[in-house]
Amino acid sequence: MTTAPIAPARHSDPQMSANTTDMMRQDTAASQPYAIELRGVSKAFGPVQANKNISIKVRRGTIHGIVGENGAGKSTLMSILYGFYRADAGDILINGKPTEIPDSLSAIRAGIGMVFQHFKLVESFTVLENVILGAEGSALLRPSLAKARGLLKDLAREFELNVDPDALIENLSVGHQQRVEILKALYREADILILDEPTGVLTPAEADHLFRILRGLKEQGKTIILITHKLREIMEITDEVSVMRRGEMVATRQTQDTSPTELAELMVGRKVLLRVDKTPAEPKDEVLRVEGLRLLDSQGVERLRGLDFGIRAGEILGIAGVAGNGQSELLEALAGLRPAEGKAWLHGQPLPLSGAGCDGQSRRARRIAHVPEDRHRRGLVLNFHAWENVALGYHNDPAYNPTGWKMNNDAIREDARGKIESFDVRPPDCWLKASGFSGGNQQKIVLAREIEHEPDLLLVGQPTRGVDIGAIEFIHQRLIRLRDAGAAVLLVSVELDEIMALSDRILVMFDGRIMGERLPEATDARELGLLMAGMA
Amino acid sequence: MSKPGKLPHWADVTLVPLTSVLIAFILSAILIWAIGESPWAAVKLMVEGAFGSSYGWGYTLFYATNFMFTGLAVAVAFQARLFNIGGEGQALLGGLGVALVCLYIPWPHWSLALIAACLGAGLFGAAWAFIPGYLQAKRGSHIVITTIMFNFIAASVLGYVLVNILRPQGSQDPSSPRFPSDIALPKLHEILSPLGIPFSTVPPVNISLLIAVAMCFGVWFMLWRTRLGYQIRAFGESEPAAEYAGISPARITIYVMLISGALAGLMAVNSVMGEQQRLVLNAVEGAGFIGIAVALMGRNHPFGVFLASILFGFLYQGGAELALWTGIPRELIVVIQALVILFTGALDNLVRMPLTRLFAVMGAR
């Protein structure tokens, strides 16, 4: 879209010159088949080498996957490409031409478009207004709006990129919002589209639709870079795939010549169990029973529309669903963090869902532990030392607080050291602030705190979100061990694979309701995906 | 998006404030030079006036005592991320508490009067802070707005009480009668002379200084050694995490405001009981607001508040000396103090970001 025809002035014959131009274009395309080429790109943050001597060639008109664990340096690399960071060393070649990208405006000018994991949209603006935002073109909006409307119509027809141009962003589903992000990039005439974990928030059906869009764009000659940690998607849609590990580019493969197992090994640097080993559950008495659980949010929207279920000791009950269908509210209601209506019993004794006795302390007193979905916001105080975080929520525990008013900091530190060791938290330093640990190790601190108090019921949300593969394995094993020790576990996860691998029973939630119950051995991703999309 | 690493902790708590103060001093020096005075002579005068004699020290420490109380008040509240701007009003009310205790109850000994005055000052200050705290906790009224408004209300209340209730018959002066002289607080020279240390008898610095220092330690102990402190800090760092831990945000908000208000109120023990010996309209003299700067500069840590209080005591006393002995107008001294507040408080990042970059470069080598 941005390639301007190169008009060779020395030819006098217009017919001739047109032909030559065409030929030249083909020539340049053939001799420079790479939309993006990085040569020896390095970037360090203080002592941390985020990218080490990265070289990669992305062929024009292909879909190129980049996989790697969290912290492998994928995001840094893309931030360099989009002008957020400047590389310490190395060259960037766009369409064979060395290019400096000091800021995102230069990236846009070089034809690079980025679709972020967290959308950058103005919620109260319409789709059209968002599309032209930052590319208004003139003081008056009308011409650009008209241009954008025309373009949107074309794109909708060509690529199934249909979005109502006059809808407000806040009224759109996540999948549609993502399309707006793609439209924004295309409106800016992006030739190279970078998508960062695009399917994290989508239903399987929405993801399929996205892939159809991406294939269409590829056929139009666009180059697409897909950053993901979902190997299934890599196998399904990419032409080539590059693997990053600890800041280095360890391998590039033709997708058809590789396998998920090989990619996983390359990512971690060793063999990984993609399936979890576990014995069949031996469920015992019912620990928790919930009837008619309803929850209204602050806007008065009904987030839980009457749930009935039970969990027994020694089983993991998985809650599958696309993010935002009431799972978070369910966890928080059971954890006593949000008032709800309905009835609940723990070991047959009533469990208040609002008012007195419905708070974090009362829940812990009744041996309900909670690993929250958002460990940064809720599960940890990031500015606290690791040992201070070990006491979070258990600050009334006699072991930590024997007098009722003065904390026994020595005892807490002692205990923290033990937990850090038994959960293999790295670095094993109880004086490090929580913010100084990687995502996986932060999660281990939370899990250690909650699991080692030997709860009867563990509520756990997104246990492995933002956690690297090595730690995922460890966390899964710990959850199963807790189950085998006789605890009831309620597992909420948007990772279908995780739900399938860990759960003994699966409930699927959609729009605040339970769409159905399935046994993991008697269902598959497709059936669950349909339920998750509300199609039962 | 681009964050060039983090500053080491020691640098954050020492280098940043020191550099800020240095810049403020350099700018002040330029100002003094620009009006035709010698900056060097001014600095000498300030330092000698504030630290050169026990007379100077006495005043510096007297002011510092005020600032320790109000600085701690702001710092404690800020640990819970509550911005208590109302130290001024809480200290005024604390003064009322001190006056009532000293005027209406006959005390056999100053020590008993001191204990009672501390309780009175603390209770009145806490009560005055309780209302904004309660409104924030239960009604969501923003504490910054309410505490500011409460400063004005406190000034009016005090005016009313002084003019209509406490003012002696026939007096034109809106102030309370003098407190009985036998409950005057021992001054620092009386405390030091048994130890054989000579100290000027003039400055009003008194036993409240020791209370202020004890409060610095007490606040530190409360914040980092007790359950309440743990809850306050957890709530301040992350309200969702505190809620998750079963810490009631409303309760902590109210507790913190009570403590903060009590600390601000205690300042009146120093100024009202220790110096003026009666309650006057402007008993606080802006110390409540200086407390904000002190807390900012002291990084909301009691030890930092202690050091920053001494610095601001120095600025107050040294500034007074400047006004007395040079042609530098009184207003310029306020400007110098304002520059220090501006650089240590408001323009924190001006210093921090270059320093951070410097450390990143040095770390990379």
Q: What is the structure about, briefly put?
A:
The complex is a heterodimer of chains A (536) and B (365). Chain A is an alpha/beta fold and 536 residues long. Chain A has helices at 14-31, 74-81, 104-109, 127-132, 142-159, 174-187, 204-219, 231-237, 260-268, 327-334, 360-365, 375-379, 386-390, 409-422, 439-451, 469-484, 496-502, 525-532, and strands spanning 34-45, 48-59, 63-68, 89-94, 97-98, 112-115, 192-196, 223-227, 240-245, 248-254, 286-296, 302-312, 316-320, 341-346, 349-350, 368-371, 457-461, 488-492, 505-510, 513-518.
Q: Which features characterize this protein?
A:
heterodimer; A: 536 residues; alpha/beta; Rossmann fold; 4 domains; six-stranded mixed beta sheet; 24% strand; globular; disordered N terminus; B: mainly alpha; ABC transporter involved in vitamin B12 uptake, BtuC; 75% helix; 0% strand
Give a written overview of the molecule.
- The complex is a heterodimer of chains A (536) and B (365).
- Chain A is an alpha/beta fold and 536 residues long.
- Chain A has four domains: 1-31, no CATH class; 32-268, 3-Layer(aba) Sandwich (Rossmann fold), CATH 3.40.50; 274-367 and 456-536, P-loop containing nucleotide triphosphate hydrolases (Rossmann fold, 3-Layer(aba) Sandwich); 380-453, no CATH class.
- Chain A has helices spanning 14-31, 74-81, 104-109, 127-132, 142-159, 174-187, 204-219, 231-237, 260-268, 327-334, 360-365, 375-379, 386-390, 409-422, 439-451, 469-484, 496-502, 525-532; strands at residues 34-45, 48-59, 63-68, 89-94, 97-98, 112-115, 192-196, 223-227, 240-245, 248-254, 286-296, 302-312, 316-320, 341-346, 349-350, 368-371, 457-461, 488-492, 505-510, 513-518.
- In chain A, helix 15 (439-451) packs parallel to helix 16 (469-484).
- Chain B is mainly α and 365 residues long.
- Chain B has one domain (51-354): ABC transporter involved in vitamin B12 uptake, BtuC.
- Helices cover 75% and strands 0% of the residues of chain B.
- Chain B is built from 16 helices and no strands.
- Chain B has helices spanning 9-13, 15-34, 39-51, 54-79, 87-104, 110-139, 143-166, 188-192, 208-225, 227-237, 239-244, 249-276, 287-297, 302-325, 330-346, 348-364.
- The model of chain B has no long low-confidence stretch (mean pLDDT 90).
- The chains are: A alpha/beta (536), B mainly alpha (365).
- At the A-B interface, helix 11 and helix 12 of A face helix 10, helix 11 and helix 16 of B.
